[in-house]
Every structure is written in C-alpha cells, then in structure tokens.
Amino acid sequence: MKESREFKHPPNENNLNECKSIWDQIWIRELKDKSPLFYGFYDEAALLIEENFDVSDKTLVLEPGCGSGRLSLVLAQKGANVVLLDVSEQALNLAKELFSSTNTYEKANLVLGDIRYLPFRDGCFDVTFNEGVIEHFIGDERQIVVNEMARVTKRGGKISVLVPNAWNFPYAIYKKLYEKRHGTWSWGLEVPYTPKELKQRFFKAGIKVLRTGGCRLIPIPYHLQCFPARLVRSLASPVKKVLGRKWLRMNTGYTVLHRNLAQYLFCVGVRG
Ligand SMILES: C[S@@+](CC[C@H](N)C(=O)[O-])C[C@H]1O[C@@H](n2cnc3c(N)ncnc32)[C@H](O)[C@@H]1O
What we know:
- There is one protein chain.
- By secondary structure, the chain is of the alpha/beta class.
- The protein has a single domain (2-166, 186-215, 263-271), classed as Vaccinia Virus protein VP39 (Rossmann fold, 3-Layer(aba) Sandwich), CATH 3.40.50.
- 42% of the residues lie in helices and 20% in strands.
- It has helices at residues 14-33, 43-52, 70-76, 89-101, 141-151, 169-182, 195-204, 227-243, 245-251, 256-261; strands spanning 2-4, 60-64, 81-86, 108-112, 125-131, 153-164, 207-215, 264-271.
- Strands 1-4-3-2-5-6-8-7 form an eight-stranded mixed β-sheet, sandwiched between helices.
- Strand 5, helix 5 (141-151) and strand 6 (153-164) form a beta-alpha-beta unit.
- Helix 1 (14-33) packs parallel to helix 4, helix 2 packs parallel to helix 3 and helix 8 (227-243) crosses helix 9 (245-251).
C-alpha cells in the first residue's frame, strides 16, 4: 500500500476545513465503535458495485470520497487495484485498517485530497465511482465534482455515483425533523439529487448514461436509535436473511416508480 498524505491543493477554504472536521469525527467514531462493514447501508451498494464493474488485476479504480473504503474493497477482492482518496485523514485510517485486516493491503493506494481538484492526470482510471459524496456540494461545485470524475477516467471507462433521492419523502421528512431537533444535519451540507439532475450532470460532463435506478425500495432508518426504528430494523433483518440476494435485487430495482422514489439513486455511465 502506498500513501500520500499531503494535499496537492491545501485545504485553505473554510468549508473544506469544516467538512474535514465533521467527517474526521464521524470516522473516529466508526473506527472505535464497530466494523465499517456494518454501518449504514452496505449490501445494496456493494451489489451494485459488483454488478456494474467487471474488473481484473489490470483494472485501476478510483474512489474519490472513499470514506471507509469498504466499497472499493469489493473490487480489490476481485483483483482490481484501487486508489482511495478522501479529504478526511480518519477515513484513510479506517480504510487502511479494513484493507490490512482483509489481506488486500497491497491492492490499495491511499491519497489525502479534494475531489474538486483530483491530483491525477486525465484519463488514467478504468473505473471511477463513489457513494454518498457528490450530494455534499452546492452550486457550480455540483458539476465540477462530476467533471473531475469524468476527466480522470479513460475514454470508454465507467463512472458511477450513488446519492440520496430528493423525491424520497421519508428521507426528506426525517432530515427536516432531525435538523429541527439537533439544529444541524450531522453529516454536513447535504443536498439530494432528483433523477433528472443526476442524468443532466452526467450528460454535461460528457458521460453517456448506461443505467439509472433506485436503491432501497423500503427506507430503513439506520441512523435512528429510537424504538420504532429498531423495530423496523429487526423486522427487516430476518426477511433479508431468508431472501438473501433476492432481497438485494428487490432493493436495487429498476421499475419506474422505484427509480424515482427510492431512498437512493444511482447512475452508471461510460466516458465518451
Ligand atoms: C458518506 S461518506 C462516503 C462513505 C463511503 N461510501 C463508505 O461506504 O464508507 C462521504 C465521504 O466524502 C468525503 N468528502 C467530503 N468532501 C470531500 C472532498 N471535497 N474531497 C474528498 N472527499 C470528500 C468525506 O470525508 C467522507 O469520507
């Protein structure tokens, strides 16, 4: 594993420093509390990654905003070489631990950096993807991050993102209530996407959309530690066990209704 822990573009902007400190705290908690494979939703996202990218030991993958690195791990375990970039040092520490504990250490390179100024030359990756990252930007930066992901990907290479869906009512209501109660959203600035905006951003970045879809048909409140949320989680868990991969497929469905109303949206494209 190679590590580059020096910013090519120093994070001198206030919002970047704030974002770093929010995510450092989140990842310190994750590192202490439990395995990164168990927080939030992982299974459906991992299935999508597996299905969308056919990789070998010749494939070079970039995950900008890698967080724990648990999704890149899915591809590294299939032989791919992965570059994990994040603005949070603690995220990289978590990823380092995860890759070390799964004997995939030599497959990963860790880079401290900013997704808006990726420190890589044009067209060097076969696959560029992330989950839960590009919704943390507003204004022009929403396009800049997708453009950067496209720039560093080879022509014919694949790009995918997974983001919260602006049309998912349970998410919108939960976020409003949470902000009212806590005075803030603990994951920083977060503006979900509509299916239309997501496709347009890909199009403007020169990425041809191959597939879009919804992920998580039935919203499961992972963050909440209250009684009804625990009940929903414990009811869902045996269903998941019995249905196995069928449950995952159901939850990453492609019906029009599901695509537009699911908790998360995904978009997969090819760099033109
Ligand atoms: C929701 S987390 C990603 C979780 C990841 N998919 C996983 O499964 O662990 C979002 C990540 O984006 C990173 N991030 C936010 N702004 C960034 C920026 N400007 N450049 C690079 N990474 C950034 C955060 O530090 C955080 O680790």
